[in-house]
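I am hoping you can look over what I have pasted underneath with an eye to the fold:
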Amino acid sequence: MGKESTPTQRIYFKAILLSVILLVAISSQNLIPVHIAFIPILIPPLLHTMAQLKIDRRMVACVIAFGLTATYMLLPVGFGGIFLNNILMKNIVENGMMVTSAQMPVGMIIPVFGMFLGLFGRYLFHV
């Protein structure tokens, strides 16, 4: 970006950086099951860049938390399969409600959408 970057360029770069962190968090749950082990590898080298761009570290924490949590709440693969089928569905069935594994991700759309709205709102007010 250089020393003479415009505010628009910085906003675009912040959005790209946060999107890449989000994609890494999502893929750490499903594509490469390392869960949170990517954080000490990816984030410390970016701290200087984040400080120069004045990216709020709480925003980065929200992006990582959303990427980790929303994927296993919604996608029944990897850690999501364990959460949705072995924990959530098992407890619902044990308490007398008849559900199928196909219904579990559909039922989790509302909380994940709420998390998305919170993340999006946090981004809008802290860019």
